[in-house]
Every structure is written in C-alpha cells, then in structure tokens.
Amino acid sequence: MPAAAVTQMSPVVTLTIGELAREFDLTTRAIRFYEDCGLLTPQRSGRNRVYSQRDRTRLKLTLRGKRLGLTLAEVKELVDMYESPRDTLPQLKKFLVVLAAHREQLEQQLADLHATLAEVGAHEKEARRLLAQGQRKAAV
Predict the structure, then answer these.
(1) pTM above 0.85, yes or no
(2) Which one, 32, 38, 61, 137, has least CB within 10 Å?
(3) Where are the domains of the chain?
(4) Rounded to 5 degrees, what angle do the CA atoms 13, 14, 19 make?
(5) Helix (H) or strand (E) run with residue 122 in it
(6) 9-69 belongs to which CATH class?
C-alpha cells in the first residue's frame, strides 16, 4: 500500500473538569463559570463534563486575555473570531483596537498612581516636619 494511502487516526484527547482545573490551577467552579459565559462548551458523558483540546485552548486564551486585563466578553469575542474560517485581518485589527484601549486605561492608571504617590510623599514630608517641630518644642 502506498505511504500516502496509510492514514492513522490520532486519538482524541479529552480532559475531565478536574484535570483541566489542575492543569491551569483553577477551581472547578471557575471552569463552570467560563462554561456559563460561553467560553467553554464541553461534551457530556452522562453527568460528567468532557473537555476537548479545543476547550483547553479556549481556556488558555481566556486566561491570557484576563492577564492582559480584557473583560470576559472581549475575550469571548476575540476567541470566537479566531475560530471562524474568515480572513484573519479583521480579527487582528479588532485585537489591536482592544489592546490599544487597554493600554490607554493602564497608562491612565499609572499616571494616577504616580500622582497619588507624589501626594503621599508630600504628606509624609509635612508630617515629618511637624513631628520634628513638635519634638524641638518639647525639648525646650
């Protein structure tokens, strides 16, 4: 038989909710929550959830999106777009728009933190000055 005609079926790897939870260091409750949000769509075997490699990948992308500060709705929209057979250019453009919005938000938060730290520093300096002044008066 020619080599091209020989095809082996790769086994379908499935995961239980516990296996998925352990792999990503999540609670099973968190995984069920992502399922309720439509990010994961496990099959059922009786009462048990059976997760595919697709679900595993979607969970990995979901967690990556969360680390970037995306909302679950934004994550779902982006992950769903990547699964569609459409051209990837609109998907990449949308991703860049989402990232730009989050960058702007983070930069504003950073500016606010710098302003707050400067204010805390000014209050500390004034409190130290008043403390030193009070200690000098008490010593006299």
Answers:
(1) no
(2) 137
(3) 9-69, 86-140
(4) 120
(5) helix 88-139
(6) mainly alpha
